[in-house]
Amino acid sequence: MAIIDWVFLGLYFALLIVIGVQTIRRIETPEDFAVAGNRIIWPVFFGSLAASFLGGGSSLGNAGETFKDGYVYMFAFFAFAIQTVLVGYFVAPRLKRYANAQTVGDIMENHYGSTARLLTGILSVAVCAGILGAQALAVGTIFNTILGVSTTVGILIGMSIVVLYSTFGGVWAVIQTDMLQFVFLGVFLPVTLLIGLFKVGGPAELMASVPQAHLSFMGTWTLGLFVSVFLAFLLGETLVPPYTQRAFSTPDPTSARKGYVMSGIFAFFFFFVSASIGLVGLALYPNIAPDQAVPTVVKNVVPIGLVGLVVAALLAVVMSTASSYLNSIAVVFVKDIYQPFINPNLSASRKVWLERGLSLVVGGAAILFAVSVPSIVDALLYSYALWAPTIIIPLILAVMWGFRSKPAALSAIVAGGGVAAVWTWVLNEPFGITGLVAGLVVNVVAFAVVYKVVGGERRSVPVAVSEGK
């Protein structure tokens, strides 16, 4: 990159750190660190949520898989946008009925008891750590391909900045940096696509330059593969802790609904942009590794003076997601595991400092995970297999219809998670069915059977969540 590009990139990093440092003055209570004092209006919620879930998987991962398999991957990935719109319209407003809630564990304990909170906390930490690792790997890929820095060094640099501002400012810093990063990704990635299309010769030339199967709905995929991947993205990140935490941070149900739905609609546009950049990369540089499609296009096509801003936009996409998951891991561990089961008398001030300390530790663990997985998408799918087959069905049944049955929920979590693990890592996904799908089916059946046999109740209006937990 030219000197001017390095200057722009350096200013971007400096601005992130300044936001984190100045935000520390706003963190007076655990609620400020976890849910920004429940004061996030819907336009800010929209930008923050979009920046949080539009990470390495939806940018580098989506482009890389489209580079390899075509638009079929993008169509499967649209499941995430569909899920976000549906959750926004039907579920997100109902989350605001849980007074004082900050985590998914708060809801699960409200309906299914303290053991459900503990299991939810453990699974939440594991899922968030895996997705955080995927973002760390994406940061390293950007640094390696565009800046010529080794992937490991790039991970260390990028994640150190994320850990710094997340640790200082909690979710206040995360949301403020999200808004800056949302502007960067919303402007400069579409600009990159337009420049890439011009370099190829226009849309018609692009379509002529790639295999025709890459432009079809199913490509070379089988129906079973498409359904499996579609379901993974439909349910794999549904109501994961960072997104639920964002909904809790809004002041009312209307803000939760509007922010969620708008971010889901924006996701369709963003997924198309990143996937199309993947096809541009295939047309211009067919011999590169798939995950390097976006960084390679940026490095070789974007003009001097704009490269630094586009690199900042790419890093913004990834770092915004990383900071959200990092913050959630700290909040979930303290609120769902440490305080209820290890130290119930934890003071508010010590709670905030413990969450900050955990942000540092977890950031280091994410770096180790990032250098051990084969690809960004693999890291995401490993994580999804922990969430959808365990938590999502009992959670939605609780929020939408007020189900309350400890035996049913615990049976579903254990059975679904156990089957998903055995199906994936012992049986190696027989019949081409993913562990997520197998575990999800068992989760539903286990909940239904135990609820029918043992019984339970349905109460749509939740009891208040204790502020002491």
Indicate the mean pLDDT.
Answer: 83
Number of helices: 19
Question: What is Rg?
Answer: 21 Å
Task: State the strand order across the main sheet.
Answer: 1-2
Number of strands: 2
User: What global shape is seen?
Assistant: globular
How far from one another are the termini?
50 Å
What's the order of the H and E elements?
HHHHHHHHHHHHHHHHHEHHE
Which residue ranges are poorly predicted, with pLDDT under 50 across at least 5 consecutive positions?
none
* Biggest beta sheet summary: 2 strands, antiparallel
Helix content: over 70%
Q: Which structural class do the helices and strands define?
A: mainly alpha
Q: What percent of residues are in strands?
A: under 5%
